[in-house]
Amino acid sequence: MMNEMYRQLGVSQAVYEFGESILGGLTERFREIDAVAEYNQCKVLAAMQKNRVNATHFAATTGYGYDDEGRDNLERVYADCFHTEAALVRPQITCGTHALTVALSANLRPGDELLSPVGRPYDTLEEVIGIRPSPCSLAEYGVSYREVELLPDGTFDYEGIHRAITEKTRLITIQRSKGYATRPTFSVEQIGELIAFCKKCKPDVLCMVDNCYGEFVEMREPSDLGADMIVGSLIKNPGGGLAPIGGYICGTRECVDRCAYRLSAPGLGQEVGANLGLMPAFYQGLFLSPTVVASAVKSAVFAAACYEKLGFRVVPGSGESRHDIIQAVELGSKEAMVAFCKGIQSAAAVDSYVTPEPWAMPGYESEVIMAAGAFVQGSSIELSADGPIRPPYAVYFQGGLTWFHGKLGILLSMQKLADTGIIKL
Ligand SMILES: *Cc1c(COP(=O)(O)O)cnc(C)c1O
């Protein structure tokens, strides 16, 4: 019955059987992923119980949003969940890039220097910082920038970092996830060591972690190991697939206060910002997030194991530990990227019939191809694949609100590659 169902969805017997043979070797791995989800589910529940979440917190507010108890309590829940003094969790934060922009511009003043000790940050941050000149960049406001490349083996260049931290250095930005690079994603432990090193070099330096795609993949978060701020998007992990918009910044009271003044206005800060009826989605999304993230991690591990077996370079490897939900597969050609993305698209519940094509996306330097049939547009905790059309022609695969949907997507991606003759099964 099962093969027949997959056949109806477009998966051939050969692809189905290949997938099952790979899955046979992943039982122990999946057990470990479930254990992390169980721990994080308890962590979220504890934060909700401590803050006595109840139905009144789900009420919609409009206008200024003064005394919005649902919003304020959600921020206490986030702060307790991520073990920080304060949190800013808002639908007015439109995306991850916006959350990072708020965190950076709120905590850097003219004359300060920003340092990335982990090499070039995510594409969209280049314009925020002013690496690529852009109106309203930090550079335009007198904030200078420096970066230290990773060593060839992907580890931190501690000597170079030590040299780069000067009396101007005010904020250190550390991106947890690889983003559109083929470097490894850092573990929370590695990030903790880097933060400790930077604080030893300069005790009053602020350390911010771009936590996009990392939330709930491990039992700890960078905020457990000294980060002054962790920042992310609600249409990625912590929104659990239900949040239709939003971003968060969790951190010290001082940093988060400044972020709130930057997001709204000096003097207003966290007091304003109506929730527009989004509280049920934000609370329930956070509640679901640990198991949704586990589904995404299982899908990523399955993709790695399949494509590794087919002879492609995958980052991380199927046996490596995971610190985010992203799986890079180096496909080696534009045609293979398009076929892969067509497979992911055709597995979707929404827009399964459309064909993804490469296009010039705002904020990105190269053409980008994206496969995303999502309930929330652009949501990448939902099953999706994307990548810039440039060597090594890597697709970045992520998400899957349920593991079985992720599985279908990967099977269909292999099907499309087989149909175009790029792989043989
Ligand atoms: C997605 C992402 C961002 C930007 O988030 P958007 O919501 O796309 O603006 C920043 N950094 C990393 C590492 C990301 O994965």
UniProtKB/TrEMBL annotation:
- A Pfam family that this protein carries is Met_gamma_lyase
Which SUPFAM superfamilies does the entry link to? PLP-dependent transferases
Q: What is this protein called?
A: Methionine gamma-lyase
- UniProt lineage: Bacteria, Bacillati, Bacillota, Clostridia, Eubacteriales
Q: Which InterPro entries match?
A: Met_g_lyase_put, PyrdxlP-dep_Trfase, PyrdxlP-dep_Trfase_major
